[in-house]
Amino acid sequence: MCYLAKSHGSGLYRQAYRVKCYTFRMRYNVLIIDDEKELAESTSEYFNMMGVSSKYVLTSSEALDFFKDNEAGVILLDINLGDASGFSLCKTLRETIDSPILFISARSSDDDMVVALNIGGDDYITKPYSLNVLFAKVKAVLNRYESSGRKSGEGMVYGDLRIDEDAGIVYKSGNEVVLTAMEYKLLVYLVNNRNKVISKEEIFSNVWEDSFVSDGTLNVHIRHLREKLEDDPNEPVFIKTARGRGYLFKAEG
Q: In a 10 Å sphere around its CB, with 0-12 CB exposed, 13-18 middle and 19+ buried, how is residue 179 labelled?
C-alpha cells in the first residue's frame, strides 16, 4: 500500500511529496503446491468453503514467489512439480520456514516417504486422497500448531539438554538445536511424560492427532531426534525404545 506524504521545505510555499509504501504480509492457513491444476484448485476451493483460507500454486518458483509476500500455516507439497522436485523445494523452504510440511503424492514407496521425512517433511499423504479426510488432517495440524501455547517458565534441563517451552527452543550444550515442528512436538510430549513408556498408539493420537500415521513416520522422527540430541544416536541416553511397547524419555532424578 502506498500513499503521498507531505513534508515542508525551507522555502516559502515550498512543499515536497514523497511516496511511502508499506508491505503487508497475507497469512493463509494452507498453501497447496501441486502441478495438477484441477486437483489443486478443487482442494483449495474445498478448504476455503470449509472456512480454512488457502491458496494454490503450480510450480516451485511460484511457491518461492508466494513466500516473499505471504505466509502459510501448513504447506501441502507434491513431489513431482513442473519445474523442480518437491524434495528440493522442501529443503529450500526449510532454510527459512518452520511451518508443517505435509507431502501429498501418488508415489507410495517407503523410500519416498523416508526421504520426505528426512529432509524436513512432517507427514506423507498418498494420492488419491479424500478431501474430507485431508481436511481433517490439515485442520488437526492447524489446531495443534496455532492454538497450542507454550508453557511459561525457565525451561527444563536434563544433562546437557535444555528445553525452553516458553520460547519453543531446545538447546544442547548451550547451542540451539533446529527441530521441525513435529520433532519439537514429539520431544515435548515425551518429556512431559518422562520416565514413562508411551505406546505408539498414544503418540499417534496425542502428537499427530491421527490414528492413521504409519510406524515408519514415527521411526524416522525418533531417529532424527536421537541424531540431534544424543551424543551417540546408536546408544541413546534420553530417548529410549521399550521394545514391543513404545518409547520413553529417560530423565534422572
A: buried
Q: Where do we find the cell 470449509?
A: 50
**C-alpha span between 17 and 53 (Å, rounded):** 38
Beta strands in 78-166 (DSSP E): 101-105, 123-126, 156-158, 161-164
Single out the residue of 178, 177, 182 nearest to residue 121, CA to CA.
182
3-class SS of residue 58: coil
User: How many CA within 13 A on the CB side of residue 190?
Assistant: 27
What is the enclosing helix (H) or strand (E) of 103?
strand 101-105
pLDDT at 130 exceeding the cut of 90: yes
pLDDT interval class at 214 (50, 70, 90): confident
249 close to 159: Cβ distance less than 8 angstroms: no
Strand partners, 158: 161
- In this prediction the pTM is 0.59
Residue 59 grid cell: 510450480
- Eight-class DSSP state of 148: P
Grid coordinates representing 191 are: 518429556
Tally helices (H) and strands (E) across the chain.
8, 13
How far apart are alpha carbons 211 and 5 in whole angstroms? Answer: 57
- 30 and 56 Cβ atoms separated by less than 8 Å: no
